[in-house]
Specification:
It is built from nine helices and ten strands. Helix 2 (14-26) packs across helix 3 (31-38) and helix 2 crosses helix 4 (42-54). It has helices at residues 2-10, 14-26, 31-38, 42-54, 75-107, 120-138, 151-157, 161-167, 230-257, and strands spanning 29-30, 58-63, 66-71, 114-119, 142-147, 172-177, 187-193, 202-207, 210-216, 222-228. With 258 residues, the protein is of the alpha+beta class.
Length: 258
Amino acid sequence: MEIRAYLKDFGLSSKEIEVYLALLNGGAQPVRKIAADTGVNRGTTYDILKSLIAQGLVSYYHKKTHQYFIAEDPEKLTDAITQKERQLTALRGKLESFIPELKSLFQKTGDKPVVRFYEGVAGVRMVLADVLDACEAAKEGYCVYSSADVRPYLHAAYPRFTEERIQRGIEVKVIAIGEGGQLKGLDARRWLTKEKKVEAPTYTLIYRGKVALVSVNDAKEPYGMIIEDAGIAATQRFIFEWIWGQLEVEDQKSKVKS
């Protein structure tokens, strides 16, 4: 089981693994026997053998009227990985030279809103990482409508989010919806309501030219989206700041009454 898992991580398909292991165990064999032993049809077996030969894992020779295939020494796996590393290094060098051109194409989408969807816990983490990266690069803070219902999903996706935010020196204003939430550092918080049961199924973050939304589907699986549009972000920030100001007035009224 561990051998198959390793070969899968190496990059072999399930059928390639079966053919390769059959050759390791059985020695030199013609295609007909390999196909019979693995249950893979002969045409596919030929294609797999070509792939394994190209990777340096299998070789062949002719004996009388038959072609026999044989596995190379397993040390060839290490050689193949080294070769892949060289190819990736070369590819990285070429890619870096094209990054400026690719970025120019990417930035041309600025004339219309761009919406990106992210699924699951990993997707939500990507959304939160974008908030931190964008705010740190712009040296700006961000605003949040913090829903008590969704908050636990964010903590699960990015447990050290608040610590990293503080380490990067990013300030945040929070309008909390529902009970809970407390100051942690470089943050200010006001409550829209502290009621326990509030129907607010979306957590909203407003930051540098973007609005990020995190919610939960009917199966209780989190997902997120990022709307990239300066106008939409500016409008949402304006509304947020107006509500923030109104909550300050309400706080002052409460203090006077008390």
